[in-house]
Amino acid sequence: MTETKNNNGLKVLAGLLGVVLLGVIIYTVSLYQDKKKTTAVLTQEKQLVVEDLNSLKSEYDKAILESNATNEELVTARDNIAKYIDSVKSMKGDIASLSRYRRQVGVLKAEREQLLKQVDSLTKSNTLIAMQRDSTYVELEKQTVFNDSLVVQNTQLADVVEKGSALNLSKFNVDAVKERGSGKLTSTSRAKRTDKFKICFTVADNVIANAGDREFFVEVLDPQGNVLGESYSKTNDSGASVTYSKGTSFYYENKSLDVCDYINKPAGEFQKGNYMVNVYDDGLKLLGTSKFTLK
After folding, report:
1. What is the 3-state secondary structure (H, E, C) of 180-197?
2. What are the structural domains, with CATH classification, of the chain?
3. Is 244 helix (H, G, I), strand (E, B) or coil?
4. pLDDT over 70 percentage in the chain
5. Per the confidence metrics, is the pTM higher than 0.85?
6. How many CB atoms lie within 10 A of CB 279?
7. What are phi and psi of 76, to 5 degrees?
8. SS3 1
C-alpha cells in the first residue's frame, strides 16, 4: 500500500517536471524568436539610417562640387555625416540607441536645408559680384580706350600747338656792306670793298607763341663751305647739332619784329665767290636761307 502511494507521487512529480520543462522550452523558443525578430528589425532600421545618411552625404558632395569656392561649413557637415555612418554600421546597440540616430538624421536634414540655403544665397551673391566685376571691367576697358584716345588727341594737339607756336620769318635779307668814315653803311658786291655782312630778318607775329627772350643762330658759309666767325656749336634735344657764326638775341612780344645783326670781316679780306647764310631758331629748326655772290 505504501509502495503504491510512493509510485503515484513520483508520477505526479514527473508530470510537473515535464510541464515545467515544456514551459521552459516554449519560453526559450519565444525568446529566440523575439531576439531574431528584434535583430532583423534592428538590421533593417540600421540600413534605413545608413541610406538616409548616405543620401545626405551625397547631397553635400554635390553642393561642394557645384560651389565655386570650398565652403568649410559644407565640408565639416559632410565629414560629420561620414562619422555617423561609420558609427551606425558598427553599433551593437538596441532599438532605443538606433532611435537616437534616427532623430539625429532629422536634425542633420534640417541643418542641410539651412546650409544649402546659405550656399545658394552666397552663390547668387558671388554671381552678382562676378557680373558687377565683369561690368566694371568692361567699363574700365572702355575708359582705357577713351583715355588712350585722349592721350593720342592730346599728343596730336600738343604737336599742333608746338608747331603753331614756333616762330617763323616773314622776311630775310643779307647785304654785303662797306662802312664809311662817317659810319654810314653802303651796299657793295665787291669782296675787297666789303667790311661786314648785314643780316636782317623779320620775325612773324604769333599770338600763341611764348613771349620773352629768344635767340636765333646765324650760320655764314664762305665759298669753301667754312663757317665764318667764332664757329660756336649748338646741340638740340634730339641730338642734332649746328656750328654757327653768331647768336642773335631779341625780346619777342608776339608781334612782328625786325632784327638785324652783323658778321664782321675775317682777319683777311672776304673771298670772292658764293656765300650762303642760314638762320636757325633755338631748337635748331632752319628758318631761312639766303645766297649771294661777291665779285
Report:
1. CCCCCEEECCCCCCCCEE
2. 20-165 (no CATH), 169-294 (2.60.40.2560)
3. strand
4. 63
5. no
6. 23
7. -65, -45
8. coil
